[in-house]
Design a protein that fits this description.
Blueprint (H helix, E strand, L loop, with lengths): L1 H9 L7 H10 L3 H11 L3 H7 L9 H18 L2 H9 L10 H4 L3 H15 L5
């Protein structure tokens, strides 16, 4: 009983279950969702498309979801979308001087960015 109660407390009410995310990816994302990400991250579309390695007409859904997830995580860590945007766009010592958005072009890199955000959130930034 205590475990179930603890689980409910640790999950954000807005967090989606992986099954829901998989269904959403399988259904496909609307162009408006890419526009929302573009506006949230405050980056010109051409630059965002280059970061996502996509043409204007083709979306790589998992990369869109990956960057959205990182923006959401960074916003939670820094408490402000402007600070999150700035952090994601500038070189970070914890990534060996790499820019988080560049690092996140691969899933492995995105996990490293996610891990760094977790360390910052818990005060063990290195």
């Amino acid at each position: 009983m205590k475990t179930a109660t603890l689980e409910k407390k640790t999950h954000s009410p807005k967090a989606k279950h992986p099954t829901d995310l998989i269904r959403q990816i399988q259904k496909g994302l609307r162009f408006s969702e890419l526009e929302t990400l573009q506006n949230s991250i405050d980056m010109p579309f051409e630059q965002l498309a280059a970061k996502l390695c996509i043409s204007r007409s083709t979306l790589q859904r998992r990369k869109v979801m990956r960057l959205s997830r990182l923006l959401e995580h960074a916003t939670k860590v820094f408490g402000d979308i402007e600070k999150a945007r700035a952090w994601l766009k500038f070189p970070q010592r914890g990534l060996g001087g790499a820019v988080p958005l560049d690092y996140a072009e691969t899933e492995v890199g995105a996990r490293e960015v996610d891990n760094l955000l977790g360390r910052i959130d818990y005060g063990v930034y290195s």
